[in-house]
Specification:
Helix content: 40-55%
Number of helices: 7
CATH topology: Nucleotidyltransferase, domain 5
Distance between the termini: 11 Å
CATH superfamily: Ribonuclease H-like superfamily/Ribonuclease H
Strand order of the largest sheet: 3-2-1-4-5
Shape: globular
CATH architecture: 2-Layer Sandwich
Oligomer: single chain
Strand content: 15-25%
Structural class: alpha/beta
Length: about 210
Amino acid sequence: MSGDKNKINEQEEYRIEKLEPLLKEACNGEKAVFFLDAAHFVYKSYLGYLWCFVRTFICSPCGRKRFNVLGAVNAVTKEIIILTNETYINSETVCQMLFKLASLGLNIPSSVVLDNARYQRCRLVQDYAEDNGIQLCFLPSYSPQLNIIERFWRYVKKECLYSKYYENFANFKAAISNCIDLANTDKKEKLNSLLNLKFQSFRKVQILTV
């Protein structure tokens, strides 16, 4: 129980002392802040809600293929920048994303908020970020609620994966890519609301032992 409270306090301190001041700089146009995370979309069935009076069988792929997307969302503009592959997201992929962010030609310093995945916290990534003038801001462990791109991945699954069947892997990938593309264009207003800079707090949540 005390460990849970300590973790919550650590997350709250990070939000108040580091994350919110960083985002204030971003809103004032003094810094570009990106939230970075990877999503691994496995080619399988994503069930939603289905109500029926008879047993229903739903087609399902084998689940042996996956479409990996490393994404970065601009905290202010909400622009989604991605890199994709069908193998693995690793430290080299993260460096490719950092290069992509550094190549945007922004005239202000850039910061990237990300979790503590080993391939993101390794020396290769940290050195590459330093060489490109990018500040890496690692979140406290177990704090996905502080990374707004996590909301975007849930949005993608809801929009194009839940309760849907794709006959082949190519259609599966195309649906995800199209959903991301639309988020940057036609769904911009919805994205602005979804990716607001308000963060869930667990400080007042009652924790029960099981």
